[in-house]
Amino acid sequence: MNVLEKTGLLYQPHTSAGRVPSDSGYRIYVDQLITPSEVLAKEVETALQQRLHWEDWSLEALLQGAAQILATLSGCITLITMPQTTTVLVRHIQLLQVESGRIMLIVVTDGYETHSKVMDLFNQPSASEPEPEVIDRELQIVSNFLNSHLRGRSLLELANLNWSELDREFQHYSEFLKNSLTELTKRAVSPSATQIMVRGVGEVLRQPEFSQVQQVQTIMHMLEEEQEQLWRLICEEPEIEDAGKPRVTVRIGTENPLEPIRTCSLISSTYRRGSIPVGSVGVLGPTRLDYESAIAVVAAAADYLSEAFS
After folding, report:
1. What pTM value is reported for the model?
2. Nearest by Cα to 188 from 255, 83, 117
3. What pLDDT does residue 193 have?
4. Quick one: angle between helices 38-51 and 59-74, nearest 10?
5. Which helix or strand (DSSP H or E) is residue 198 part of?
6. Residue 159 main-chain phi, psi, to 5 deg
7. Which of 86, 126, 197, 205 has its C-alpha lying 20 to 30 A from 279's C-alpha?
8. CATH assignment of 37-84+193-309?
9. Around 259, how many Cα atoms within 13 Å sit in the side-chain half-sphere?
10. What is the pLDDT of residues 144-194, one digit of tens each?
């Protein structure tokens, strides 16, 4: 125990208290020592299937119902965003050489908005670089190739393309294109915040971590009046697992950038329509929450909502 405290994995909240895990301690626990509960994941899936009626309910009622089920099963505040209703589509792509080795990528969307990004085509100078005239001709060919493959697709899809499909003749462009389009997607896609369904507040606020009135007030204010900040946090795109599914994101204590929830843990993932993320599901609770169960609940709910929306 002494070693754990010295390495920062345990700490003493105040002089009369025992030792409790620090945020770093919980991080090691989550990353290395737990396996999400498959039993609870199956329970979540079964409950959602049995108690939600997609044919008869409105979309808002469905998501409210899902949020209530998750709050009951997890014992945490549950947050589910309404799905995005608009998707930015690619209308035209053009690659232009602006100077030696410097290429501008231009993307025109279906709303006739133009986004551009200038990058180096070659990572480092080489004596074997093609002549500028040759690069211009090849860029036009690549532009035509990209338009034929990407026109009408959403910007969000560009970040998850199978780049191995590019013709071998253009392989020396693929890394440049991948980096450019991924970076452009991050800059150009600015989804508008939608309503967040919030359930389970009463149960969580009875926990000892929330005994201070001021802390409760700041959390409630954020949930009611500052949802846009919270929306941007839980809607950040998680990494993709090897199986192609979005990974669950776990933010513990001070890892949360929003001050009102820096004593909490936020677990979230996206739900999708096909390959396009349209909304998020998450749970918010004290840092000592049951991570195995909470992660399983979020993952199962995201998978269920993705299947339903697809």
Report:
1. 0.66
2. 117
3. 67
4. 150
5. strand 196-199
6. -70, -15
7. 205
8. 3.30.450.40
9. 6
10. 888 988 898 887 777 667 777 656 656 666 677 777 777 777 666 555 667
